[in-house]
Design goal:
Distance between the termini: 53 Å
Largest sheet: 3 strands, antiparallel
Radius of gyration: 18 Å
CATH topology: Arc Repressor Mutant, subunit A
CATH architecture: Orthogonal Bundle
GO molecular function, one term: DNA binding
CATH class: Mainly Alpha
Order of helices and strands: HHEHHEEHH
Low-confidence stretches: none
Oligomer: single chain
Organism: Enterococcus phoeniculicola ATCC BAA-412
Keywords: DNA-binding, Transcription, Transcription regulation
Protein name: HTH hxlR-type domain-containing protein
InterPro entries: HTH_HxlR (IPR002577), WH-like_DNA-bd_sf (IPR036388), WH_DNA-bd_sf (IPR036390)
Length: 120
């Protein structure tokens, strides 16, 4: 009989592949910030998102938005109007990641000493 810890994604029947897939899905320098900004805005336009993350290039922002859409974490909505308008929002799957982000944030707060820069 398997113990409770043997039945989770890390060590159980699933192996490490699911965790590695998740890390790939949310990895990338800007994806965490994209998801964060989408979590606070029901629908956000590309330009608004770009202003919230000014350091990211248009090419990288577009690529990471496409990745998140492909992985079904965000939804791209095109409005059929005279002036084309595109908005992004988190899907239910994307929203389900928010508690995970909170756990990551809490872990970082508790272990912030490891993130301090060493002065040379």
């Amino acid at each position: 009989m398997k113990s409770e810890t043997e039945n989770n994604c890390l060590t159980g029947d699933y192996g490490f592949e699911n965790i590695e897939r998740l890390v790939t899905m949310i990895g990338g320098k800007w994806k965490i910030q994209i998801i964060y900004h989408l979590s606070g805005n029901p629908n956000i336009r590309y330009g608004q998102l770009k202003r919230k993350i000014p350091e990211v290039s248009h090419k990288i922002l577009s690529a990471q938005l496409k990745d998140l859409e492909k992985d079904k974490l965000i939804l791209r909505i095109e409005h059929d109007e005279v002036v084309p308008r595109v908005e992004y929002l988190l899907t239910e799957l994307g929203r389900s990641l928010l508690p995970v982000y909170e756990v990551f944030g809490n872990w970082c707060d508790e272990n912030k000493h490891i993130f301090r820069r060493v002065e040379i």
